[in-house]
Amino acid sequence: MDNDVAERVADVLKAVAHPARLKIIELLVPGEMSVGGIVEAIGEKQSITSQQLNMMKDKGVLGRRRDGAKVYYHIENKNVIKLLDCISDHCEQNSKDVK
Amino acid sequence: MDNDVAERVADVLKAVAHPARLKIIELLVPGEMSVGGIVEAIGEKQSITSQQLNMMKDKGVLGRRRDGAKVYYHIENKNVIKLLDCISDHCEQNSKDVK
DNA sequence: TTAGCATATTAGCATATAGTAATATGATGT
DNA sequence: ACATCATATTACTATATGCTAATATGCTAA
Fold first, then answer.
1. What is the mean pLDDT of residues A16-40?
2. pTM, whole model, 2 decimals?
3. Chain A CB contacts of B17 below 8 Å
């Protein structure tokens, strides 16, 4: 793995490596969702959720679409879905021996 | 995904989300390696490499074994290997359209 | 026990990230 | 044009992270 690749990969991983952001991604796997819907679903403040959505959009993880007053976010980088699958497997395997 | 799980997963991802640490993990996929070997292979300073190895050990990603004066690190959480596979696929797919 | 190699730890600084509260922008309906 | 809802942005604080340089520890061989 050369330097450039390592940095890009690390960037995507950093974009995802946060509890609330993981939940957001999980929410969006089935399809797009409005900011309001996301805020309600994960129970975080509007402001911080918006910041995180924007951050993930900047890093290419999410995309968005405006429809009237609402803005809908979706997963743009489909690889994070695969990543989430790996992680879910991990959790199932390890759900017993959590420290 | 409940809160506890999200936090543990985010923790593992954060442990991995760094260029040098990704390279270290890649190095260790075939098997264990001494600190000196790792330092030489990734071309980082001894001190920082040691810090990162310890950090990943603390988070359960790596394990270590002392043999005489040398210390050998290996991948303890095998799921990061799967994770790395996902990421590699990602890179192959996207190697053309990097911004 | 001393020298020297291998690794770990510490203190300190610079920068990044997470979060809060307040405010701004943008769209809709009246 | 105005009120209101939906979302974004900003300024700010607190904490975490990444790194450096220096020093400490652990092991081995003489």
1. 97
2. 0.89
3. 10, 13-14, 17
